[in-house]
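batch job 7 of whatever, protein = glucarate dehydratase
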Amino acid sequence: MKITDIRATTVTVPLEAPLLHSNGAHWGRFVRTIVEVETDNGLVGLGEMGGGGESAELAFRALAPHLLGHDPFELEALRFKIANPTAGLYNNRTQLLAAIEFACLDLVGKHLGVPVHDLLGGRIRDAVQFASYLFFRYPAGDVPEVRTPDQLVEHARALKHEHGFTVHKLKGGVFPPAHELECYRSLAEALPGDRFRYDPNSVLSLDEGLRFGRAIEDLPNDYLEDPVLGLEGLRLVRERVRIPLATNTVVVDFAQLAANVLRRAADVVLLDTTFWGGIRACVKAAAVCETFQLGVAVHSSGELGVQLATMLHLGAVLPNLTYAADAHYHHLADDVIKGGPFRYEDGRIRVPSGPGLGVELDRDKLAEYAELYRELGGYPYDRDPGRPGWYPIVPNDRWADPSRPLAPIA
């Protein structure tokens, strides 16, 4: 089996409403690039990468001639062909590698007639638990804003009723820490018996991070995620706050993982199949975490169904996955896979059992959302369309005003 073609198609899939985060916003849609790797036996493997737009399509197009004739089974050779660690200092291709690795694993699974999780050692769970992933958001159509504690609680209750979530993650760093603390404590009070996690994406100062962490020590927290910037900042918070610390920003490769093992700053590492360069790298990292008694969770970088499938296969095989996974997925209004979006049952999504990743493209949806991307173009992740001229700094002191209702985004 040899690679004969690589195609990349950038799509824009609508969200139910624009979502706010510490660095800006998701502007009511996700921009993702779907990758198809074709082989000489007629099989097509699927991958996915975040954002990029035309630049991502050009990057995959530039890589294609160098991968023609490559055997998808040869995944270690693929890693060095795409993301040689020394060459990577000049041209970081980690996310390109991830998307093509997804597609090669999909091809190998289809060729052998087995699901990807069988290629990774076999599943030990049939479904993966997810957290609710709560955002402050702009209103859109019939979807109301989320800004106040009461609105956040109502939103969390609605998601719990619809999807069965019992773990709730608040994406913060948008409003002043005192307001977000009130929101977070309101969630815990309104949903007794559930568990919680807070993630301001590293924008708090050390003093603010310590104050926030100490103010929630009495709650049933899973962890406090990236309250401040960097491993040293996390270590200082970890020494003074009695809550596990988690990160998805400063432990995203093996050198950083080694640094965290030698001088622990984070107790939980969120593994992202894109950021780490593929599913296999995440499995390796999870084994290191298991050895050194670090917790692991599955991180979300804004997935469609193809990448969600990679997250599910990863979650299926990790014995030390003791935390619910993150996913933006329930904020999507649609998907590009056949059969429509994956469905939650009691806060979980079943692991695909078909060959390869177990998903196929809906060609009509792919064409529809490729055209939508051509119409709307991309958007800057680090800007907020509701605050013209604003941009984030770290530590942040440029908070959104929680007293002002959020207006719909044009």
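notes: The first strand starts at residue 3 and ends at 14.
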